[in-house]
From TrEMBL:
Cofactor: Mg(2+)
Organism: Microbulbifer echini
Self-association state and partner proteins as the record states: Homodimer.
Official protein name in the record: dITP/XTP pyrophosphatase
CDD domains in UniProt: HAM1 (cd00515)
NCBIfam families: RdgB/HAM1 family non-canonical purine NTP pyrophosphatase
Active site residues per record: 70
Function, as annotated: Pyrophosphatase that catalyzes the hydrolysis of nucleoside triphosphates to their monophosphate derivatives, with a high preference for the non-canonical purine nucleotides XTP (xanthosine triphosphate), dITP (deoxyinosine triphosphate) and ITP. Seems to function as a house-cleaning enzyme that removes non-canonical purine nucleotides from the nucleotide pool, thus preventing their incorporation into DNA/RNA and avoiding chromosomal lesions.
Co-factor note (free text): Binds 1 Mg(2+) ion per subunit.
Pfam families the record matches: Ham1p_like
This protein's UniProt keywords: Hydrolase, Magnesium, Metal-binding, Nucleotide metabolism, Nucleotide-binding
EC number: 3.6.1.66
Length: 207
């Protein structure tokens, strides 16, 4: 029987990537919206704390195991900002576009060699809302922030994130390439190892 887990995210770009990343798994990963789960307040001080908050919230509302992703962009020249505040960087009513504009303003005049940055992704998986032994993983992807957006694919800060090994931004990468290299892809690969070690033979919420 197909096992169901809730994906604790309201971000359409992430949900698209996860549906591809989990494509070959024998579990059904359903977005939190299908269970009426609304956004949790991200009050943590780290990606992993926020991922846990989101996963526990989605599990509590849905009654199912839940997986959450908390991710963001840390720019070295900005002391790691916007970091866990990446989605809220441009304040109330923040959008990807406004966040990108704010980032370009913050980096105005900063020379190319000092524009290094990392995407971070923390994943948290809980079997139930009060799971005392969640599965957690963390990964990062190094790049450099361009001076103007390039590319139409992906979401968030992708048009500004230049990936040297590919010679293009993550918004220009074919999605299967982003889904091989990205912080999220690497975190899911770690998660797959943990899943195999920890979940073998475990009944998911009695399913
Ligand atoms: O691969 C990525 N490519 C580009 N940008 C990215 C990526 N991964 C995270 N990001 C940016 C988007 C957002 O500004 C922040 C995530 O914030 P984060 O709170 O984890 O997600 P969110 O609020 O959009 O949705 P949700 O919390 O429901 O999962 O980092
Ligand atoms: Mg969020």
């Amino acid at each position: 029987m197909l096992k169901q887990i809730v994906l604790a995210s309201g971000n359409a770009g992430k949900l698209r990537e996860f549906s591809q990343l989990f494509n070959s798994w024998d579990i059904e990963v359903l977005p939190q919206s299908e269970f009426g789960v609304t956004d949790a307040e991200e009050t943590g001080l780290s990606f992993i704390e926020n991922a846990l908050i989101k996963a526990r919230h989605a599990s509590q509302v849905s009654g199912l195991p839940a997986l959450a992703d908390d991710s963001g962009l840390a720019v070295d020249a900005l002391g790691g900002a916007p970091g866990i505040y990446s989605a809220r960087y441009s304040g109330d009513g923040a959008t990807d576009k406004r966040n990108n504009i704010k980032l370009l303003e913050a980096l105005e005049g900063v020379e190319e060699i000092r524009r290094s940055a990392s995407f971070h992704c923390a994943l948290a998986f809980v079997r139930s809302f009060d799971d005392p032994v969640p599965l957690v993983c963390n990964a990062q992807w190094r790049g450099r922030i361009l001076s103007e957006p390039v590319g139409e694919q992906g979401f968030g800060y992708d048009p500004l994130f230049y990936v040297a090994s590919e010679g293009m931004t993550s918004a220009q990468l074919p999605r299967e390439v982003k889904n091989r290299l990205s912080h999220r892809a690497q975190a899911v690969a770690q998660f797959e190892v943990m899943w195999r070690e920890n979940m073998r033979g475990i009944d998911l919420a009695g399913q």
